[in-house]
Amino acid sequence: MLNHLLRKIEKKEYRIGIIGLGYVGLPLLWTFHNEGMQVIGFDIDKTKVESLKEGRSYIKHLGKNMMQELAKSNRCDATTDFSRLSEADAILMCVPTPLDRHREPDMSFIVKTTETVSKNLREGHLVILESTTWPGTTEELMIPILEKNSGLKAGKDFYIAYSPEREDPGNPKFNTAMIPKVVGGYGAEDLELAVKMYETAIVKCIPVSNCKTAEAVKLTENIFRSVNIALVNELKVVFHAMDIDVHEVLEAASSKPFGFMKFTPGPGLGGHCIPIDPFYLTWKAREFERHTRFIELAGEVNTNMPSYVVNQTMIALNKHHKSLNGSNILVIGLAYKPDVDDMRESPTFKIFDLLKEMGANISFFDPYIPKVIPTREHADWTGVESIVWNYENISKFDAVVISTNHSNIDYTELADWSECIVDTRNALNGIKPKNEIHFFKA
Asked: What phi and psi, each to the nearest 5 degrees, are found at residue 160?
């Protein structure tokens, strides 16, 4: 059976089904399609499926051309009918893995999707989880569900592997095809099949000894970033008290050709990975009576950054003889990072909430997000619209907080139009302030 499937991959007759057509699944589907493979996308969201079929873009940084080409292709299809999973040779799961309100792993999306896959599982299927999760998920959680509901045996009747997504939305230097793929298989044949499939479209595969090792790789990557971002966020607070510009320090330190990697501070963590993934290991470590002190401390530092921003905003307003209570505040940037329309886990929402609690009137501007769409945790802001960028609108605010430094914003105009700007991203670097109480770094 394995040799037959490998030949299908070689001949590009192998069909790849991708569950979840979001920021991970959609570019993955495009990458395989772009290399001549047959692809079919699955999603419970009818709007996404219809957009893919009709060539309408719903993730801005991926562009319209990609969507239009997929819509016209006879090698691409999309559906909400999960019974069609049997048509695919490989099933790649790209579903959310959030934290619940107790900051513990919410595995409901993986469990429900695995149950759906199990009802449509057939001999020879390759099932791969790409979602970030705790080490052991594939073997301890998924395989029992797949085997029980299908009557098939993992490693014998069907193949299973884990390969973590490594997307960086909006990064022009790296797309899915250019980022090496870590792959761990349940057994040797599972690994071989998964690697051969990914090698049709990805620049390089990094095979590891098993699924839980691959799961640990992904967590390690994001824990590394979380801890180092927490470090520079803490340095920002300390250096600010010493009247030292942390950005100047980091820029100078990055000139060292070894032993230093530059991370930049900000108003907190956002996105679907870094604020969440480290706590998957923290949760799993308790099973082994181990404590992840670095991870938890980093989380504490990063979680407290929005409070620091609000406090700096209060200080900035005080210097203008104004109170935060009753002031009109414009927050620039709802997206969690520059030049994308992704607002998942954005620290801007926390800044919104804290400012509102202090009695401020909040508006926002984001060139990528015209209106706040429904979210699980910030329903109160649903439907709020971005203001129009012009002098009349900007100049009426008592203070402007730069939370996300989108590159297509004219910060020189902002500096001319606003009397009080709190900059959390060093976006005003190089722009001369009107007076000594015009710019504030936070």
From this structure: -145, 145
Report the C-alpha dihedral over residues 311, 317, 319, 323, rounded to 10 degrees. Answer: -100
**Residue 42, beta-bridge partner list:** 19, 79
| Three-class secondary structure of residue 38 per DSSP | strand
Using one digit for the tens of pLDDT, what is the confidence trace for 280-291?
999 999 999 999
Active site includes 420?
no
Strands 90-93 and 181-185 turn out to be unpaired
Domain endpoint, select from 193, 209, 225:
209
Q: What is the pLDDT of residues 222-245, one digit of tens each?
A: 999 999 999 999 999 999 999 999
pTM: 0.91
Residue 282 forms part of a structural domain = no
Instruction: Given the residues 76, 94, 211, 273, select the one marked as catalytic.
Output: 273
Is the distance from CB of 302 to CB of 230 less than 8 angstroms? yes
Domain count, the chain: 2
- Tell me which residue range forms the domain holding 346: 304-441
Instruction: Give dist(CA 3, CA 52) in Å, integer.
Output: 33
Q: Does residue 240 lie within any of the structural domains?
A: no
| pLDDT above 90 (res 336) | yes
φ, ψ for residue 29 (rounded to 5)? Answer: -60, -45
Would you place residue 102 in the very low, low, confident or very high pLDDT band (cuts 50, 70, 90)? confident
Secondary structure of the chain: what % helix, strand, coil (to 5)? 40, 15, 45
Indicate the residue among 209, 230, 247 that finishes a domain: 209
